[in-house]
Amino acid sequence: MTIPARLSIVTLGVADLGRSVAFYEAIGWTRSAASNDDIAWFALAGCAIGLFPRGELAADIGVPDGAGGFGGITLAINVESEQLVDAALATAVAAGGSLAKSGQRAEWGGYSGYFADLDANYWEVAFNPEFPIAADGSILLP
Amino acid sequence: MTIPARLSIVTLGVADLGRSVAFYEAIGWTRSAASNDDIAWFALAGCAIGLFPRGELAADIGVPDGAGGFGGITLAINVESEQLVDAALATAVAAGGSLAKSGQRAEWGGYSGYFADLDANYWEVAFNPEFPIAADGSILLP
Fold first, then answer.
1. Interchain pair A2, B29: CB under 8 A
2. Domain extent at residue B66
3. How far off is chain A from B33, nearest CA to CA, in Å?
4. Mean of the per-residue pLDDT values of chain A
5. Does the residue B13 lie in any domain?
6. CA–CA separation, B133 and A71 (whole Å)
7. Strand pairing partners for B101?
């Protein structure tokens, strides 16, 4: 199978969640109701942006957050089922990417894994029952 | 003014453009006709992804590409005029961001500048007459 040609979420790992939320609100963006004390979401035309503590973002992948390693940004492709997560990860590996984290149940209630592309950009492939997917493949942030 | 709540393009700085294009094609994505020997574009549901040599991407911002610095990814907000580029950059600075590159004519025929958010994520704000903007704010990749 192929991986759906979609970019659902860009998550920025931030040093201080409150300060960063204040910055993005100050440029005029409205925090989504899906936000909580752990992560902030902003619905954008196109994909969505998440703000999440940088160290926790690296830990979610299972990589060190340090010099020359994790760049602080993850990209996410949301799919419609757990099976599609596993299939997409397998496709990425078959294409020459590397499996950074196999598909597994996530504490936030969904299922996800990560692959790294040739330059160690981390792509999460996720099934999140809380974020419906529109007919065009984009996610519908609450 | 506020900055439009949109994410138009994510550009990945890659070590070897040909190899990375082959990887993304191998997962089933189709290169846009807007691609050329210098940069590859993939239209995705949501935003678009660009692949561009990492060193050149850092150079376009005007930052060093090295340990602890540039993370290899830029995010772009495309707007409808040069004036809107300058206004968005000013808004970002007023919100506490920093101006990484002031708005200026770009060799690719448009006008762009960069701001950095609180965690040194680089956002390009660009007017690109070649990439029309749809009513919902998303870009229409050729």
1. yes
2. 9-127
3. 16
4. 89
5. yes
6. 29
7. B114
